[in-house]
Amino acid sequence: MDLALAQGGIELKQFFRTRESLVFTLLFPIMLMVIFGSIFQDIVLNPGQTPEVTLSQYFVTGMIASGLLATAFQNLAITIPIERDRGVLKRYMGTPMPKWVYFAGKVVSVAALAVLATVLLLIVATTFYGISLPSTGQKWWTFVWVTILSLISFTLLGIAFSTVARTGRSAPAVVTPVALVLQFISGVFFEYSKLPTWMQQLAAIFPLKWTTQGLRSVFLPDSFAANEVAASWELGKTALVLSAWCVIGLVLCLVFFRWTTKRDG
Prior knowledge:
The chain is mainly α. It has one domain. It has 10 helices and no strands. The chain is elongated and about 65 Å long. The mean pLDDT is 90.
């Protein structure tokens, strides 16, 4: 545990010393929340229902899910190829440090960044866009398990996806379009129920859609569940799908993760 925490501290220092990572992982979701939240503020999604839900409120709950995706999946899928390309992972292999410590450090770093990103996004959402914090213990518990399962799946998938980029330089170009497409089809930028059916079916395969839906059940009124595609929050299915992706992500990591580039052998 001491080794894991020490490695996590190193990861966090490296993150905060890299301006690009700091901006795009922590500040970019907040900027998007402010820009689009202001644009969507007067659009009501459930006219005639009480209480009313604006598109900005719907959007900012999706941005909280997007923040989890950025701190875990995007962050790891971009930084690991850079470290592999620079020979950092190869040097780790030549040290007495157990290999699991490297991944434990990533997990500690992702968890700390996710908490920070979520707190910042919640401050903006509750201050400017009418989002209320969970009012019951049950909703807080839903918030906790949705966040934990999402972080685990995003982290494992980020580690596994880090093998796709051939070089560290190409990693952002490979990872960013995937993350953006997932956000567009998963109910982050647009109301999920208004998307084409084929797009909904595609998004339902991946975990982000279920993260956004689970978080909507926490921060939006219970009456809004009728506006979902299934006319309910489907929390049981959300837990099942996110848990399945945790297992799938772990298997993909074990099968595909590489410590060295192809040129290193």
